[in-house]
Design a protein that fits this description.
Order of helices and strands: HHHHHHHH
Number of strands: 0
Largest sheet: none
Structural class: mainly alpha
Radius of gyration: 20 Å
Length: about 180
């Protein structure tokens, strides 16, 4: 059972490393297989307020979506030999890979959902610094590695934030036991 949390931590670290080093590192080279991420996915997302219409295409086309799925399938197969000795670990890695695809896809088809549920990924695409916020499904390793950057100019959600009471009024309420 220890394989479940280990598989989750390993997968989140894998997201961070692969996104940073492979998808952005190698992906900036137009001749690289991984260039689809930077030159297609990021450009479409920036132009279309986070929407990447390649997620609406058929899986039978050679697109960024298909390449992403192919990469995830290769990663899943690479872990298959460990299945007999670490079934919970491998199962968790496979579940995390599937979750990554479905969460990432939804984020790029429903930007409002992404802003609410994956603000770190929304910030990765729409913020000033696209070389931060490497995690997609959970910001754990961005927080650990210090690469989580909040984009301060994201529009507020539909419900307004409550107005904070002046500092003096808050101190008085706290001192008198009222909150």
């Amino acid at each position: 059972m220890i394989g479940i949390p280990l598989g989750w931590v390993y997968s989140n670290f894998g997201e961070w490393v692969l996104h940073r080093s492979v998808l952005h590192g190698l992906g900036k080279n137009r001749k690289s297989f991984w260039s689809f991420h930077w030159h297609e996915h990021h450009q479409k997302s920036r132009r279309n307020d986070m929407v990447d219409d390649q997620y609406m295409r058929s899986l039978w086309t050679w697109s960024a979506q298909t390449k992403e799925l192919l990469g995830l399938a290769v990663l899943a197969l690479a872990h298959a030999p460990l299945l007999p000795v670490a079934p919970f670990f491998v199962g968790t890695v496979w579940a995390c890979a599937a979750n990554y695809y479905f969460v990432h896809r939804r984020a790029h088809l429903d930007p409002q959902w992404a802003r609410e549920h994956l603000p770190w990924h929304y910030d990765h695409h729409m913020g000033r610094d696209q070389n931060a916020n490497w995690c997609v499904t959970h910001p754990f390793f961005d927080l650990v590695m210090g690469t989580r950057r909040e984009f301060l100019h994201v529009q507020p959600t539909a419900r307004p934030e409550p107005v904070a009471a002046p500092v003096a009024a808050r101190k008085h309420a706290t001192a008198s036991g009222h909150r």
